């Protein structure tokens, strides 16, 4: 039988789907990106729009695949536990994802809908272990689940539960296995990655100290980390270990102290700026990317201009801009002064323009410099990959995928760099 996964949302979902597919593959099932006998839909619920997209995918699959087994799981289900999904074979939340194969095989025997949902999450991490990631040249490793930040706009602490960490020995074993299987770059993922270890008497920096010792690991990337977790211990690890790439994704969400307070973020702009200055003392050329929500309830034009000016001051490499989306079940949904959609749309455009200008400025700083590029694909006569600081680079000619090569940057084409392969380096 053929199995296909459709993954919506974050890198944690990507990792989980990859694990589930590997379990099916181990049992003799065929993995496909085409028409399948079994569909796995790993949903997202970070915004109302994410919910709507998840529902749309599910309804289309049910309509077009009457005889297939359809498994729906993840955050959208957790946020809507009473959801009715006619035509869906198995419905689970964010627990029991490791049991999908046995749930499917039980369904194939009795053809009765399985629905496993719980009021509360266990305090233990649901172990998953992958040895390969199909069609990817960097491997994701999920080290943590859950979040306890309770930002006023976010439903995720309610859909993912409390912080739960993977055993550090298991993390080391998993990354070591992936490196032995040819992966040069590993990305650490989690819902609240930097809070790793808070439930098992260790810490994220302690884990990093062990990971960087793994022989053959050339690049270690952190998918996202909060500014409040960039403590002195973390900065010391960053300073002394070049295996950790010069790229950090640090969500800002707003550059106005008033809005940060309303969002229940755990810092104000002076704190954020101070941490960034310390990071740049260690890694002057580091790429710092971020997320910003515009149009949060109560955001005035002055507040929005504060965000624009703060982003320019920080000099982010790239800003992922999101219009505020009301989310039932969150405090922000009940706030007064909701911003009209046309104003949110206009502010998104303005901040994206700022982001594009900052990104071009950063990219231009690498012209005539030599950088290391992990080759990922070839397209239109170019080999394409990313640097450690996650700059996309095109190199004329055919270079073997999964190789890290030296490239001299010649020019910028919009938001991509074009370089020349330096074979002797």
Strand order of the largest sheet: 2-1-3-4-5-6
* Number of separate domains: 4
Report the sheet with the most strands, covering strand number, pairing sense and barrel closure. Answer: 6 strands, parallel
Helicity range: 25-40%
In terms of DSSP E residues, the strand content is 15-25%
Ranges where pLDDT stays below 50 over 5 or more residues in a row are: none
Q: Tally of extended strands?
A: 19
Q: Quickly give the CATH architecture of the largest domain.
A: 2-Layer Sandwich
**Gross geometry:** globular
Find the structural class using helix and strand composition.
alpha/beta
Spatial separation of the terminal alpha carbons: 47 Å
User: What is the highest CATH level, the class of the largest domain?
Assistant: Alpha Beta
Radius of gyration from CA coordinates: 22 Å
Mean pLDDT: 95
* CATH level 3 topology of the largest domain: Transcription Regulator spoIIAA
Q: How many distinct helices?
A: 12
Describe the structure.
The protein folds into four domains: 115 residues, Methylthiotransferase, N-terminal domain (Rossmann fold); 125 residues, Transcription Regulator spoIIAA (2-Layer Sandwich), CATH 3.30.750.210; 117 residues, Transcription Regulator spoIIAA, CATH 3.30.750; 52 residues, Beta Barrel (OB fold (Dihydrolipoamide Acetyltransferase, E2P)). It is globular. The protein is built from twelve helices and 19 strands. The chain is an alpha/beta fold and 425 residues long. Helix 11 links the parallel strand 13 and strand 14. Helix 11 runs parallel beside helix 12.
């Amino acid at each position: 039988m053929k199995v296909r996964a459709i993954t919506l949302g974050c890198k944690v979902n990507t990792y989980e789907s990859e694990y589930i597919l590997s379990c099916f593959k181990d049992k003799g099932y065929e993995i496909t990106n085409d028409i399948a006998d079994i569909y796995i839909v790993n949903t997202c619920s970070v915004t109302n729009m994410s919910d709507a997209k998840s529902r749309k995918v599910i309804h289309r699959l049910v309509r077009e695949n009457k005889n297939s087994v359809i498994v729906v799981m993840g955050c959208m289900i957790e946020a809507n536990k009473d959801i009715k999904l006619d035509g869906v074979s198995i419905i689970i939340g964010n627990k029991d994802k490791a049991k999908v194969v046995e749930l499917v095989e039980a369904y194939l025997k009795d053809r009765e809908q399985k629905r496993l949902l719980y009021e509360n999450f266990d305090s233990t991490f649901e172990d998953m272990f992958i040895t390969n990631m199909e069609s990817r040249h960097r491997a994701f490793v999920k080290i943590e689940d859950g979040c306890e930040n309770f930002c006023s706009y976010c439903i995720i602490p309610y859909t993912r539960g409390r912080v739960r960490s993977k055993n550090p020995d298991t993390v080391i074993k998993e990354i070591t296995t992936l490196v032995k299987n040819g992966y040069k770059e590993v990305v650490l993922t989690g819902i609240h990655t930097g809070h790793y270890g808070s439930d098992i008497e260790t810490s994220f920096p302690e884990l990093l100290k062990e990971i960087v010792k793994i022989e053959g690991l050339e690049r270690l990337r952190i998918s996202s980390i909060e500014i409040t977790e960039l403590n002195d211990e973390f900065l010391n690890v960053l300073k002394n270990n070049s295996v950790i790439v010069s790229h950090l994704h640090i969500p800002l969400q707003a550059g106005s102290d008033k809005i940060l307070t309303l969002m229940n973020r755990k810092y104000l702009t002076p704190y954020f700026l101070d941490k960034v200055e310390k990071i740049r003392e260690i890694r002057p050329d580091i790429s710092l990317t971020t997320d910003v929500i515009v149009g949060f309830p109560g955001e005035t034009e002055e507040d929005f201009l504060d965000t624009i000016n703060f982003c320019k001051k920080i000099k982010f490499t790239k800003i992922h801009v999101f219009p505020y989306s009301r989310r039932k079940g969150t405090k922000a949904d009940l706030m007064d002064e909701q911003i009209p959609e046309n104003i949110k749309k206009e502010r998104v455009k303005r901040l994206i323009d700022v982001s594009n200008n900052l990104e071009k400025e950063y990219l231009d700083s690498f012209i005539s410099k030599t950088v290391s590029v992990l080759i990922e694909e070839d397209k239109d006569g170019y080999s394409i990959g990313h640097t450690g600081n996650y700059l996309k680079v095109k190199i004329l000619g055919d270079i073997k995928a999964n190789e890290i090569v030296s490239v001299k940057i010649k020019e910028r084409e919009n938001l991509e760099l074009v370089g020349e392969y330096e074979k002797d380096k």
